[in-house]
């Protein structure tokens, strides 16, 4: 996002890095209080009063995901900013000050209080932002499916691609630009082999972590696609992240 926004501190072109692979992508979800009347994104679209979602500040996922959903799906949220961190937002949710929040999927399934909330059926998940449905949420639609359903314009789809890129890329292993093709292939093959190694996967499971890899070729495609966005999309993205 910083590169697309032409920030002066950025002295690199991420599309030119060698993309080896990512152990997991980090898409987001939007959860909603089970006591709130909004059971689907369509309910939010039709609501006379938008649901209140918490966020710390502009430029965070708690802020830009709800704003993106308004742009892409016509679902308006009232984003309440100013919370100092996750703990304050969790408390605000339990007090009923807010009823929703956008959060990364790995975080939502890895820690409290979300584990307890799920066990007590305190929350429902409205949507997820990944390019495919997460195995833990097979019944929750993706933003891409909903854009097809609501016939979102192509330019807005491009905006969604740009804004969600960091989640799609996840936690990647990369090399400096200009690495020899044969060396990059060796690294990609080694990464792919590691991601399928039973001993490695057993260790991941023992640590209560997950391995949901994306491979270098796919990451490279995403990086180039995002880097080629026209100025119109970049300006829309900058506005969405800052307002």
Mean pLDDT: 92
How are helices and strands ordered from N to C?
EEHEHEHEHHEHHHEHHEHH
Subunit arrangement of the protein:
single chain
CATH topology of the largest domain: D-Maltodextrin-Binding Protein, domain 2
- Which sequence of strands runs across the widest sheet? 7-1-8
By CATH, the superfamily of the largest domain comes out as Periplasmic binding protein-like II
Distance between the termini: 15 Å
Largest sheet features: 3 strands, antiparallel
Second rung of CATH, namely the architecture of the largest domain: 3-Layer(aba) Sandwich
> What is the global morphology?
globular
Q: Count of DSSP helices?
A: 12
Which class of the largest domain in CATH terms? Alpha Beta
Our count of domains comes out at: 2
The total of beta strands comes to 8
Strand content: 5-15%
- Gyration radius from CA atoms, angstroms: 19 Å
Low-confidence stretches: none
> Which structural class fits the helix and strand makeup?
alpha+beta
Q: What attributes characterize this protein structure?
A:
243 residues, alpha+beta, D-Maltodextrin-Binding Protein, domain 2, 2 domains
């Amino acid at each position: 996002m910083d590169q697309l926004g032409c920030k002066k501190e950025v002295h690199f072109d991420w599309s030119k890095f060698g993309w080896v692979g990512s152990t997991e992508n980090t898409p987001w979800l939007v959860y909603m209080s089970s006591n709130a009347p909004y059971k689907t994104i369509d309910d939010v679209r039709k609501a006379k009063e938008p649901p209140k979602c918490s966020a710390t500040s502009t430029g965070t996922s708690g802020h830009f995901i709800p704003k993106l959903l308004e742009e892409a799906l016509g679902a308006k949220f009232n984003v309440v900013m100013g919370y100092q961190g996750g703990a304050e937002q969790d408390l605000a949710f339990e007090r009923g000050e807010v009823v929703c929040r956008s959060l990364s999927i790995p975080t939502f399934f890895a820690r409290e209080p979300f584990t307890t909330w799920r066990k007590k059926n305190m929350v429902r998940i409205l949507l997820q932002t990944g390019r495919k449905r997460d195995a833990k949420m097979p019944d929750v639609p993706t933003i891409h499916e909903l854009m097809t359903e609501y016939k979102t314009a192509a330019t807005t789809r491009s905006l969604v691609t740009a804004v969600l890129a960091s989640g799609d890329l996840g936690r990647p292993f990369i090399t400096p630009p200009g690495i020899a093709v044969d060396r990059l292939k060796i690294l990609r093959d080694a990464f792919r082999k590691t991601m399928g190694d039973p001993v490695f996967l057993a260790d991941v499971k023992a640590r209560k972590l997950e391995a949901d890899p994306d491979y270098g070729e796919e990451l490279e495609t995403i990086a180039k696609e995002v880097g080629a966005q026209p100025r119109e999309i970049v300006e829309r993205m900058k506005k969405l992240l800052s307002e």
